[in-house]
UniProtKB/TrEMBL annotation:
Source organism per UniProt: Spiromyces aspiralis
Domain of life, source organism: Eukaryota
Keyword tags: Hydrolase, Protease
EC primary class: hydrolase
Protein name, UniProt field: Ubiquitin-specific protease ubp15
Hydrolase is among the record's keywords: yes
EC number from the UniProt entry: 3.4.19.12
Length: 134
């Protein structure tokens, strides 16, 4: 595949051939349908809150470190920390992190647990995306 534009490759989630023929594309903008199709919370945890945050960026305009808009989930404020050329640029990969924005205001030893998935989609075609569920 020619990638002369410098844009990252875009792929769709892996599906088996039998699933592919019956699968209707799900848009990342349809949060409820997307979560139902692709996100499975851990069976021993009960989600307190669910939120989708959308951040549209022009990769060519970004600095070496970018911070997405703050969003609130479960009473806590978060954002996405993004390194377009990677946390270690020699790796040749982009790096994304979920960042808890109020960490310095919490008492020492305090913590919060968050389960999340990161999806990178095509702005013009929100049913074309890359998904990280690890």
């Amino acid at each position: 595949m020619d990638n002369s534009s410098g844009s990252p490759p875009i792929s769709t989630p892996e599906v088996t051939p039998s699933e592919d023929s019956a699968r209707i594309p799900v848009s990342v903008l349809d949060t409820d349908a997307f979560v139902t199709e692709y996100f499975s919370p851990k069976p021993n945890l009960t989600p307190k809150d669910l939120k989708a945050s959308h951040w549209v960026v022009d990769w060519n305009e970004l600095e070496s470190r970018a911070t997405g808009p703050v969003f609130e989930v479960g009473g806590h404020k978060w954002n996405i920390l993004f390194f377009p050329q990677g946390n270690n640029p020699s790796d040749g990969c982009s790096s994304f992190f979920l960042q808890y924005t109020n960490a310095e205001q919490e008492p020492e030893g305090w913590g919060v647990c968050a389960e999340f998935c990161l999806v990178i989609s095509n702005v013009d075609h929100p049913d074309v995306f890359s998904l990280n569920r690890k």
